[in-house]
Design a protein that fits this description.
Blueprint (H helix, E strand, L loop, with lengths): L1 E3 L1 H8 L3 H8 L3 H8 L11 H11 L3 H4 E3 L3
Antiparallel strand pairs: 1-2
Length: 70
């Protein structure tokens, strides 16, 4: 299972979903879904969105999501 750390990144940014969406260049709805997703069953993040998030947060993909065995 792929587990997301996106909610933590968004929460720790201190930015509203709207501001973050505008700065990253993703739709507000996408940011809201990512902020509430714990894994790929909640929301399937695209490579495009991962790229935007990693650039904004200056982090690696492994800081955004990880594979965890059940």
């Amino acid at each position: 299972m792929i587990v997301y750390y996106i909610p933590d990144l968004i929460k720790n940014s201190g930015k509203s979903y709207r501001t973050l969406a505008d700065e990253i260049g993703l739709a507000y709805a996408t940011i809201a879904k990512l902020a509430n997703a714990k894994n790929q069953n909640d929301y399937d993040v695209s490579a495009y969105a991962l790229d935007k998030l990693c650039r904004f947060f200056k982090c690696k993909v492994g800081d955004v999501l990880k594979y965890r065995r059940k």
